[in-house]
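Write out a record, fold above all:
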Amino acid sequence: MDKVKFELEFEIKCSTKVLFNRLSTASGLSEWFADDVQINGKKFNFFWDGYPQPAEIAFKKENLIVRFNWLEDEGYFEFKIETDELTNDISLIVTDFAEEDELEESKSLWESQISSLKQTIGA
């Protein structure tokens, strides 16, 4: 079954620098995204319930975007930070993939994860 690409947008009330740190570093990601995160070069091991899920940074632009490619599974997930030129509001756009029958569950999981992210940065 082909996976479906989806994007979710969240308003985040903090600086792009603080947000980007939480999206692109082991310490930042382990605060809200995974139980633990270990880095070896470009390779990130995300741990959930003791099991590692390896990914690699495919693309990174400071304070704007970071994309991780899964190493044992096709696909990637991406965090993109956009700033509204008029209001200076910060939006986080999450791009991910899910099986069609798991799409709503995946979106709910991201909403829960981003809620944790907002709590860790006090947004």
Notes: The mean pLDDT is 94.
